[in-house]
Amino acid sequence: MSTPRSQRSRAGTVAANTVGVLFVVVMVFPVYWVLNTAFKPASEVLSFTPSFWPQNPTLDNFKSAIKAPFFLVDLRNGLIITSTAVVGAMVVGFLAALAIARFRFYGRRALIVVILGVQLVPLLALLIPLYLMLNQANLTNTLFGVSLTYIVLILPYTVWTLRGFIAAVPRELDEAALVDGCSRWQTFYRIILPLTGPGLVATSVYGFIQAWNEFIVINTLNNPETQNLMAWLLQNQTQRGTAWGPLMAGALITSLPVVVFFLLVQRNIAVGLTAGAVKG
Amino acid sequence: MHAVESPATAPSAPAAPSTPDKPGARVPRRRRREWTPLYLALPALILLAALLAYPFGRMLVVSFQDMQLRHLFSGATPPWIGFDNYTQILTDGVFWSVVLRTAVFTVVSVAISIVLGLAVALLMGRVSNAVRVAMVITMMFVWAIPQLVSAQIFKWMVDADFGVLNYLIDKIPGVDFANHSWFADPKQGWIVITTLVVWAGIPFLAITLHAGLTQVPHELREAALVDGASAWQTLRNIVLPVLRPLLVIVTTLSVIWNFGLFTQVWALRDSKPEQEYQTLATYAFTQAFGRSEYSVGSAISVVTVLLMLGVMAFYIRQMFQIGDVD
């Protein structure tokens, strides 16, 4: 991992540790501050001398966030939209990934370029035509319309990452199965699918995070009754800019599933973007 | 049943999913024309065509038209005005100031992020285990926080009246920062925005680069030390060259991401950024949805994509060169 300890001065390590701890303090401060704020009563939040620990910890902020208009509706919407998008992208993406990882065919390279390129185009750049299209198709203000755009939002990454997981399953296994009399379908069903299981979980969790965090598209396409929690958070901010306590509590609730999921699968996340660059 | 055995293979997948099949397997086994892969890719292709290619074509068309709110409601075809939208924005001083601002922000924020990210990655190799674990855990949390949420946390921290930042700075003797507004002066506002972007970007960079650093062979570093190379020389001549492909990739990605800056500005400026805070992304959005100038907004988006095209092509070429893609 690192150079032998003997070659390093103790003072050097102490200095490095000090800088490291300082770094941690600076990085963690905003996280600490949102927690600190969320549990404070309103009187402590709006104080000119902020306390660095809630004097009278309370759950009031969380209660008022949950009771705020559209919170529960948008929570439900978010869950529906996100799961639709993830399931859709996973099914479609897995098939495409299988094609790229297991077959050589005409246009394969072009397909890879498209997938890689599309991953880089921000959905925001296409927001105007998407809005015009969905508006024409009467799909604005529906959960289905947003779900469709979210499938496309997460599809490129899904294909790209799954391709890696499938490629990691030794081809010899496929061939052995074929020799043993499995059909193509059985090979897929009995060999590739179970062996890529963990990869499927990681990829769908990351898709969930991306779809859950999106707010610009949904905020443009839909009304509050058909938005998600992120859009709710944005609206909430603009309407009641100074209700910081409930806002921070809402922010905490909204990010909780994402943070938990992220920590579970973080090992796999950077892979799709930088894979190959970190080769041994 | 198979699922039980899978962990043996699967955990290695994330570490190197890129590893192509073993050298011998690269040669295609079957040469006869195969339709199966096309069937498999078809649903994805249809979706991408319908929801990415078609909208992109539509955007091109709209950018040559004069589309207003009434066309949206009546469904009438907007009049074709050729390059007028492009002429309008390209001769508009405001547009160029937005381009310049976006470019300057991108260069500055990416430079700071990469330097700090690399510094943190190197630091992770020097600290003791406990500190490194603390650093990784902290960065994981920061990385996991949704962009919109972190923007709001920063907005709260720099709040003029009750923000903790003003309170802390005000504590410095002789400094009066009570009720200081961070966004009245765009320079200060952009410092806040850049800090937020860098803070949120460091975890990905530092953790990725640290992983890359562990690939630098020990022997090389030790040989350099024995030969009397200074720490700086070792970094410049040994570590950086090994790290180069990874640095190129993460820099390219950072450029693409930061050039598309939207969320942070949007949240910090209450969904209505002032002129001095507009980036290409917010500007196109404001033109289209704030002023119902869908055609002008589309033209701006097209120009933005064109501006990014070079960087994106570079990224894709890089991925092919590294041999990850095959």
Kindly list the characteristics that best describe this protein.
heterodimer; A: 280 residues; mainly alpha; MetI-like fold; 14 helices; 74% helix; B: 326 residues; 0% strand; disordered N terminus
Q: Concise description?
A:
Chain A: Belongs to the binding-protein-dependent transport system permease family. The complex is a heterodimer of chains A (280) and B (326). Helix content of chain A is 74%, strand content 0%.
Break the fold down into its secondary structure elements and pairings.
The complex is a heterodimer of chains A (280) and B (326).
Chain A: H1 10-38, H2 42-45, H3 60-67, H4 71-102, H5 108-120, H6 127-136, H7 143-167, H8 171-179, H9 184-195, H10 197-213, H11 216-221, H12 229-239, H13 244-269, H14 271-274
Helix pairs in contact in A: 1-13, 3-13, 4-7, 4-10, 5-7, 7-10, 8-9, 10-13, 12-13
Chain B: H1 2-5, H2 12-15, H3 36-63, H4 69-74, H5 84-90, H6 93-126, H7 129-144, H8 147-157, H9 164-171, H10 186-213, H11 218-226, H12 231-259, H13 263-268, H14 280-290, H15 294-322
Q: Can you describe this structure?
A:
- With 280 residues, chain A is mainly alpha-helical.
- Chain A has helices spanning 10-38, 42-45, 60-67, 71-102, 108-120, 127-136, 143-167, 171-179, 184-195, 197-213, 216-221, 229-239, 244-269, 271-274.
- Chain B is 71% helix and 0% strand.
- The radius of gyration of chain B is 25 Å and the shape is globular.
- The chains are: A mainly alpha (280), B mainly alpha (326).
